[in-house]
Amino acid sequence: MIDGQMISQDNVIETADTQDETTLEINYHHSTHIIDVTGTNAVPEFPISIIVLTVAIASIFVASLINKNRITI
Question: How many helices (H) and strands (E) does the chain have?
């Protein structure tokens, strides 16, 4: 979108596309514009491995607290 209006696909050229990035060329009249690029795929802020590790550590911590509070006779 340029200045809040959709632009024609003819004005957007994909010049490079890899697994990590896409390079676009946008044709427009040279002046000051607001350009919005939107997509359907989002990159997660945290990798899934960090979330799994955090849950595992929290589970161990909770289990140790529960075990510590038990009284054996």
Answer: 1, 2
